[in-house]
Design brief:
InterPro entries: C2orf69_mit. By secondary structure, this protein is of the alpha/beta class. Helix content is 48%, strand content 12%.
Length: 546
C-alpha cells in the first residue's frame, strides 16, 4: 500500500538544505532540463572535489513535481513518490552525496516520462537507442551549469526564501493538525443526521481531499513570497481528451494529434512560466499520510511526536555530524562545488532505466570508436556505480541490454552494477520479454566477471504497481543497511587497532621490564665478580707479606 501510517512525515534536516528546484538548466547544445537538487547533509572530511559524490537519478512514469501530479487523477495516488520526495529519500540513503534528480523534458499526457534529451523515444517514452545521442555530453554539461547556477544564487536569498518556506510549512502543519483534531472530535460524537457534526462525518472524505489540496509543497518566488500552485479547472480537464484518455491506451497515443498538440502547448506555457522564476525552494511540508515518504528510519517509529522527525540512530549521528562540521555556515556545501568533477552514481527507476541503457550504448561508442577522446574518458572514469531499479517501459524489446559486445565494454569499465527488481516487472506473464532480457543481462555480466549484485524484493507478494514504486524504499533501506555494516566494520577495525596498540604497548613494557631485570642481574653479577676479585687480591697480598 502506497499510503503509510500516521507516523509517516516528510522530514528534512534543514530548509537551507533543499530540495531546490532549478529550472531550465542548460546542457548539450540546445538541450535543457529541470532539476531537483539536494545538497549533502554530512560534510566529507576531505575537501577535494574529486572525493565528493553526486547521485544522479532518472525517475519513472508518473513521477513529477507534486503539484503536477496532484492535477492528474492517474498519478495523484502516487504523490508519495514525487520527484522532491524521491530526492529526500535518496539523500537519507546517501547523506554525504549531492542528490540530483533530473526531470524528464516532457511528461506526455501528464503520465509518460520522456527523456528525449538523453535517448530518443516515442510519445510514450519507449526508447529508440542509437550508438551516439550525446547523452553523456548532455549530462556533463548539466552538472557544470548546475554547479554554476547553485553558486550564483545569493546566500541571503537562499536563507530568506528558506525561512519563508519554513514558516509556510509550519502554518500548513498547524492547519493539518487542527483539521485532524476536528475530525477526531467529530467521530467521538453520536451520529445525528440533523446535527452539523453529522454533516462533517458524512463529508469526511471530501474534507480529506480538501486537506490534500491545501498541503502541497510550497515554493517561493524571487521576492520571497509563497507561491501556491494553481489547480486547473475541472471542466477544462473533462474537456481535454488527452488528459482523460491518454493514459488508458498506449496504442492510441500516436494517433491523437489534437490532444498531443494541446499538451505540447501546455508544456511550452509551463516552461515559459518556469524560466521567468528559475529557482524555487520546496518547503518541507507535512504532507498527508497518503502522499508522504515512508523513510527507512521511520519504519518502526510510528508513535513518535508529530512535531519531531523520527530518526534512526545512524541518521541522528549523521545530522549531528553535519551540525558540528558546517562551521556555522548552512551553505557549506557550495564550497568548491564542481559536480562534473565529482564521482558519479547513476540511478534509473522504471522508465528512467532507458537513460542508463543509452549510456551503455555510448560507453561502447566512446571506448571503441573514439578512444582518444580524453575529455569523455575522464567523465567515464568518474562513474563508480550504476543502479537499475525495476527497469521497464511500454515497448516489447530493449528493456535490458543483451548485446554481448556492449556488456563486455561495460564490464571493462569496472564500475559496480546493481540490479533491484520486483515481481511487477520480472514475473509478469503478459510481458515475458522483460524477465528473459533481465536474465540475459545479469547472467552474461556474471559470466564476464563483472561486479554485479542482484536483489529481488517483495517476491512473496502479488505483482502490482504499488510494490513497483516501493522498490525505491527497499533500495534505500538496502543502501542504509550496507552503510551501517561498513560503519560497524570501521568501528570494529578501530577497536581492534586500539586493542592491538594496547597489546603492543604491553608487550613493549614487558620486554622493557625483562631487559631491565636482565641488566640488573648482569650488573649484580659484575659486582659479585668484582667483589670476589678484590677479596682474592687482598688474600694474595697477605700471603706475600707473610
Amino acid at each position: 500500500m502506497l499510503g503509510g501510517g500516521s507516523g509517516e512525515r516528510l522530514c528534512t534536516p534543514s530548509t537551507s538544505a533543499g530540495p531546490f528546484r532549478i529550472f531550465s538548466v542548460a546542457g548539450f547544445q540546445n538541450r535543457a532540463n529541470d532539476i531537483v537538487y539536494c545538497p549533502p547533509i554530512v560534510r566529507q572530511q576531505s575537501q577535494h572535489v574529486e572525493d565528493s559524490t553526486a547521485i544522479v537519478y532518472f525517475g519513472g512514469d508518473v513521477q513529477d513535481f507534486p503539484e503536477s501530479m496532484e492535477t492528474n487523477r492517474d498519478s495523484r495516488g502516487y504523490m508519495k513518490y514525487n520527484l522532491e520526495n524521491s530526492a529526500i529519500l535518496l539523500r537519507e540513503a546517501f547523506p554525504r552525496s549531492h542528490i540530483i534528480v533530473i526531470r524528464p523534458v516532457r511528461m506526455e499526457f501528464k503520465t509518460f516520462s520522456c527523456f528525449d534529451n538523453f535517448v530518443r523515444g516515442n510519445n510514450a517514452g519507449v526508447p529508440d537507442h542509437t550508438p551516439m545521442n550525446h547523452a553523456l555530453q548532455h549530462l556533463e554539461k548539466l552538472l557544470q551549469n548546475l554547479s554554476q547556477r547553485l553558486i550564483s544564487i545569493p546566500e541571503n536569498e537562499i536563507l530568506d526564501q528558506a525561512a519563508q518556506a519554513a514558516a509556510a510549512a509550519a502554518a500548513v502543519q498547524a492547519a493539518a493538525a487542527t483539521a485532524a483534531l476536528t475530525l477526531s472530535n467529530a467521530t467521538t460524537v453520536p451520529s445525528d443526521s440533523s446535527s452539523p457534526l453529522a454533516a462533517v462525518n458524512d463529508n469526511s472524505q471530501d474534507m480529506d481531499i480538501d486537506i490534500l489540496q491545501v498541503q502541497e509543497n510550497v515554493t517561493v518566488d524571487a521576492d520571497g513570497e509563497v507561491v501556491f500552485p494553481m489547480l486547473p479547472d475541472e471542466a477544462d480537464e473533462a474537456a481535454d481528451p488527452a488528459t482523460n484518455n491518454g493514459g488508458g491506451n498506449n496504442g492510441s497515443i500516436g494517433s491523437n494529434d489534437v490532444g498531443l498538440n494541446n499538451h505540447q502547448d501546455s508544456n511550452s506555457q509551463q516552461q515559459q512560466q518556469q524560466e521567468s522564476s528559475p529557482i524555487k525552494i520546496a518547503a518541507p511540508v507535512a504532507l498527508p499520510a497518503a502522499n508522504n515518504v515512508e523513510h527507512y528510519n521511520n519504519l518502526n517509529n510510528s508513535n513518535s511526536s508529530s512535531t519531531e522527525c523520527a530518526t534512526g540512530q545512524g541518521q541522528g549521528q549523521a545530522r549531528q555530524t553535519a551540525t558540528l562540521t558546517n562551521d556555522g555556515n548552512p551553505l557549506w556545501w557550495r564550497e568548491n562545488l564542481n559536480l562534473d568533477k565529482s564521482k558519479l552514481v547513476l540511478i534509473g527507476f522504471s522508465k528512467g532505466c532507458v537513460v542508463l541503457n543509452q549510456f551503455i550504448y555510448e560507453f561502447h561508442y566512446l571506448k571503441t570508436l573514439t578512444p582518444d577522446d580524453s575529455s569523455m574518458c575522464r567523465l567515464l572514469s568518474r562513474i563508480t556505480d550504476m543502479y537499475w531499479l525495476d527497469g521497464g517501459h511500454g515497448g516489447q524489446k530493449n528493456t535490458w541490454i543483451t548485446s554481448r559486445s556492449l556488456l563486455e565494454t561495460l564490464t571493462r569499465m569496472g564500475m559496480n552494477i546493481h540490479v533491484h527488481l520486483t515481481p511487477y516487472q520480472v514475473q509478469d506473464d503478459r510481458r515475458p520479454w522483460i524477465r528473459k532480457e533481465e536474465k540475459l543481462f545479469t547472467e552474461m555480466l556474471r559470466r564476464l566477471s563483472a561486479p554485479i549484485t542482484r536483489h529481488l524484493h517483495y517476491d512473496n507478494q502479488p505483482a502490482n504497481l504499488m510494490t513497483h514504486f516501493e522498490v525505491l524504499q527497499a533500495f534505500c533501506q538496502h543502501v542504509h543497511a550496507l552503510n551501517q555494516q561498513q560503519l560497524q566494520q570501521q568501528q570494529q577495525q578501530q577497536q581492534q587497532q586500539q586493542q592491538q596498540g594496547v597489546t603492543d604497548q604491553s608487550a613493549v613494557a614487558v620486554a622493557a621490564a625483562a631487559a631491565a631485570a636482565a641488566a640488573a642481574a648482569a650488573a649484580a653479577a659484575v659486582s659479585t665478580v668484582a667483589t670476589n676479585n678484590g677479596s682474592n687480591n687482598i688474600l694474595d697480598a697477605s700471603e706475600e707479606a707473610k
